[in-house]
Amino acid sequence: MRKISVLAAFLAVAVLAGTALASQSVKAYTTLEEPLAKALFDRFTADTGIAVEWVRLSSGEAVARMEAEKANPQASVWVGGVGTLHIDAKAKGLTAPYRSRVAKNVSPKHRDADDYWIGLYVGPIAFAMNTERAKDLGLSMPTSWADMIKPEYKGYIRMANPSTSGTAYNVITNVIRIFGGEEQGFEYLAALNANIDQYTKSGSAPGKNCAIGEIPIAIGYLHDMIRLKEQGAPIEIAVPSDGTGFETASMSMVKNGPNPVEGKKLYDWVLGKTAQDIVAQWYVIPLSEEAEAPKTGFSLATMVLVDQDDQWDAANKARLVERWNKEIPGNK
């Protein structure tokens, strides 16, 4: 009888230990580029022993995935992605509030008043041009939105699709403000469409295509383009002189996600100094007081920034994207 009792106790301990080990993981969706996400999550695992099972999605895909999984969430945290879509996810009841002990390091203007999302970094919209392709084609560097609709760029520009990309939706709201209203903005988008060769699913794809010479000119985020140039791509970069918008890359907890304890640990860690030092290496402008802004040659102080309103952008996203789908892509 004693042997049976000892065996039962041993098995019980083994089961509990196995359960504990199995729980030392967290599932995340991320809109960070794959190498950046891997470096960040690998360091988290090294520091905490908690494995991160992550899937890379564009901002629009992340919201769509969470909406499809609302009855049975498959991830606990969404790391990265434009702030407007984190606001959209909150409005759709897809995310949950969490007051992180590290949130105080981010200014209140860059985090949700109800603690549903928090900003990680800012990234302005910029243009990239492959200098080798441009030389062959006799193209000069466009430095403004006005330049981008000139006839000589017809078929030579690539950007993402706002149906799937938060980057591209940022372009829509950007030009609406620069050109003085929605009607004027859509007139501009129709003119720009004549020069677009294709719309990609991901906001970072056009820059990568430009870097390898597949397309001469790309619209995307400044930090993605600086990183490509630092990696040796023959590209020139310009921030539009007539105004630029920016993303506030953010983070949210998924409502009713699995392993919430580990999810909150990941959330806290991303806001801490170790992670913020990693983020600062991405050529972005970190929002945490823990991080130092990198020296990239570009400064917000020298840019013409639009008066961005992420709350308005989020509230009007479905309507504006629907209008874009109806009016723009087929308008060649």
Describe this structure in words.
It is a single chain. The protein has helices spanning 2-23, 34-48, 59-68, 83-91, 131-137, 145-148, 166-178, 182-193, 205-211, 222-230, 260-271, 273-279, 310-315, 317-327, and strands at residues 25-30, 51-56, 77-79, 95-96, 117-130, 157-160, 196-200, 217-221, 235-238, 246-254, 285-286. The protein folds into 2 domains: 25-122 and 248-297, D-Maltodextrin-Binding Protein, domain 2; 124-246 and 312-327, D-Maltodextrin-Binding Protein, domain 2. By secondary structure, the protein is an alpha/beta fold. Helix 3 runs parallel beside helix 4 (83-91) and helix 7 (166-178) packs across helix 8 (182-193). The chain is globular. One of its GO terms (molecular function) is thiamine pyrophosphate binding. One of its GO terms (biological process) is thiamine transport.
- Share of helix among residues? 40-55%
Please give the count of helices: 14
CATH topology of the largest domain, by name, is D-Maltodextrin-Binding Protein, domain 2
Spans of at least 5 consecutive residues whose pLDDT stays below 50 are: 1-22
Question: How much of the polypeptide forms β-strand, as a percent range?
Answer: 15-25%
CATH architecture of the largest domain: 3-Layer(aba) Sandwich
How many domains make up the coordinates?
A: 2
Spatial extent as radius of gyration: 22 Å
**Shape from CA axes?**
globular
**What string, H for helix and E for strand, traces the elements in order?**
HEHEHEHEEHHEHHEHEHEEHHEHH
Main beta-sheet annotation: 11 strands, mixed
- At the fourth CATH level, what is the homologous superfamily of the largest domain? Periplasmic binding protein-like II
End-to-end C-alpha gap = 84 Å
Number of strands: 11
CATH class of the largest domain: Alpha Beta
Q: What integer is the average pLDDT?
A: 90
Secondary structure category? alpha/beta
Protein name: Iron(III) transport system substrate-binding protein
Signal peptide: 1-22
Organism: Dethiosulfovibrio salsuginis
Keywords: Signal
